[in-house]
Amino acid sequence: MTVTHRRAILNMTRRVLHVGPCRWSGVPLLLPGEERPPRKPSPVPRGQSSFEFFFRPILGSLSAYWWIDPPLFFGGPFDQELEDAWKIIEADGLAPPGTILPNLSRHVLNDWCDVIGFLEPPPATEVEQYRNSERSVWEADLTFRNVDGAFWLMHSRDEQLYAAVEGYLHKIPDAKCFYEDLDADG
Question: Where are the beta strands (DSSP E) in 11-130?
C-alpha cells in the first residue's frame, strides 16, 4: 500500500455525510426577545422514519453488519417482528447480521441516537468501550448519528454506501446532503 493510498483511506474515514432535514415536531427553546426562525421543509413524509427515508438505497446492505445496542423504539401497535428480534440479540447487546436492519429500520429512533455497525463482531472489551464513550463511534465500520431529531450523520468505510445515499438524496426536493470533516475529538 502506497503512502498516497493510506492518506486517501485516512481522509475517507475522517468525514461524515450530513443528511436532512428530518421532520421534527419539537418546539425550539427561545430566549426572551428571540423570534422563532422559520422551519426548513423536510422531505420525510409524515409518519415515516427519517432513518428509513434517508438511507433507503442502502437498507439492504445493512443486513451484513453486527449492531451494538440498536436504538429501537417500541412505539405504536404491538410488533411481533420487533419482539422476536429482541429475543435474538446476544446477551452482550450485539445484534447479529440480518436480525435488526434492514427489517426493523422503521423502529430506529429519530432523535439523539447512534447506530453503530461492524462487519465482524467486535470483542466484548471494544463493545464496552463504545458504550462508555471510551472509543469514538466513528471508528466503527458504519455509524449513523441522529442529532436532536434535526439531521443524520453517516460515516462509512465503504465509499459505495456514501455514493448510493448521495445519489438518491440529490434527486429529492428539499433533501440536503454534504460532507463534513470530523474534528480531532470525533
Answer: 15-20, 66-68, 94-95, 113-118
